[in-house]
Design brief:
3 helices, mainly alpha, two-stranded parallel sheet, 57 residues
Length: 57
Amino acid sequence: MIDHGIVLTGGGAQLKSLDSVISDATKVPVFVAQDPLECVAIGTGESLKNIDVLKKH
């Protein structure tokens, strides 16, 4: 995260100035994903493709 920054996804990413607040507090670059809600849906779908791996942990 230090090298590349933090990417915010999900509904909370859309809160006004959240990226700035986190960046100021952490001194790390923070970016909001282009479509943060879609990122969550896509990530969930990708996780379900590998549900067997997830169940082992």
